[in-house]
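Feature request disguised as a bug: please show the residue count (435) next to Tripartite tricarboxylate transporter substrate binding protein in the output. Example input:
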Amino acid sequence: MIGHPLQEFPIRHRVAIQRLDQQRMQHRLGFNRTHQGPRCSGPRPPLTAQAAATEKERTQGPETFWFTYIVYIFVMLKFATKPHNSALELFNSDLEFADPALCMRRTSRPLGGAVKLRSAAVLLASALASTGSWAVDAYPLRPITLVVPFAIGSGTDLLARVLAADLSRSLATPVVVDNKPGANGAVGTRLVAAAQADGYTLLFGSATTNATNLHFHVGSLGYDEASFVMVAGVSSGSLALYVPHASPWKTVHDLLESARREGPRNLTCGSGNSVTQVACEVLKSATGVDAVTANYKSNLQSLNDVVGGQLSYAFSDPAAALALTSSQRIRAIAIAGPARNASMPGVPTFKEQGFPNIELRAWNGIFAPSGTPKEVVERLNTAVNQWLDSPEANRLFRQMGGEGNKLTVAEAAAFAHAEATRWGDYIRKANLNPK
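Example output, currently without the count:
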């Protein structure tokens, strides 16, 4: 034997090593001149054209290259600290007898263990870096999951499904909507925050999940602002204040007069999420009306109770109220935005009615886990913005009473931070006590 620490190998490996050493010794003594095996000690007989093509494909294909490369890295790392005359010679002998295409004639002394380890590490890092870069460039390679943290049938769900269908076409891969409702959107949002940051699990976020919720259940929410990168804006629209269609209230002042006459505790404000909950409290703070806030699981549920008379009024985004306003069961008396809504041009803003500090905007956007590669974020941003420019998107927003919110990646990051800060200010000014 020539320096092999055989006691470190299983029996079946020792036999193979001994056989290789015998063959290597024969080679050194000149006994393998008549060896007719695959060792590269002489010229190979000529191949037919078909055999040559097959041999070239076998030895030069990407599968052969990567397999050989990985084996090389593995052996270099495994035997880097072993004596050079055993570990490296074993590797070279294995290659020579395994595949003639990999034969090589050594003309210098093998490197020491430390140098070999560094070389292997550099090669491995290079392979991993090039593989990761290739995966990003080729994104997406498999279906993308778009998590909607609210129930099926909500306005958010409808918008997400229309967008997902378009992204499936533009990205040439399925974008699957997965509804994960619960805890005011926190359940689904927490799931995405914990997902791998590779662009294949995205959040259809909102002012509720990525702004107001950040100031509720602080410490136990399971995510924070830094958990996400905002990929793109989708929609934006001001909230509106809705009352029963048969109500005598035509303006906010009518509502306040009724409260003074009947007593404020007889009024109830419906809330379907943390955004509209804050809106109810902002109205109380701005007008002095101490109405009772009733929390529901969705804006549609609270609006249905406005229709039924269980609630005096409710805040909602126009999309959730669309079916009920179209059927004339509820109507809006004020828009909580800087300008009137194009779908309800006859409804004045709070500012027009003397309450300039009530501007409450609901919005949706696409979010990815923090750490998602910049190239992936840019790719998704481009795809979403292409849809926002489409006639289909413009028609949908007109029907839903909102508007598109086209943002670059940099603008989206600034928008998300500003909204989280703005809603935090609302909560503090309304003297809410987040738990």
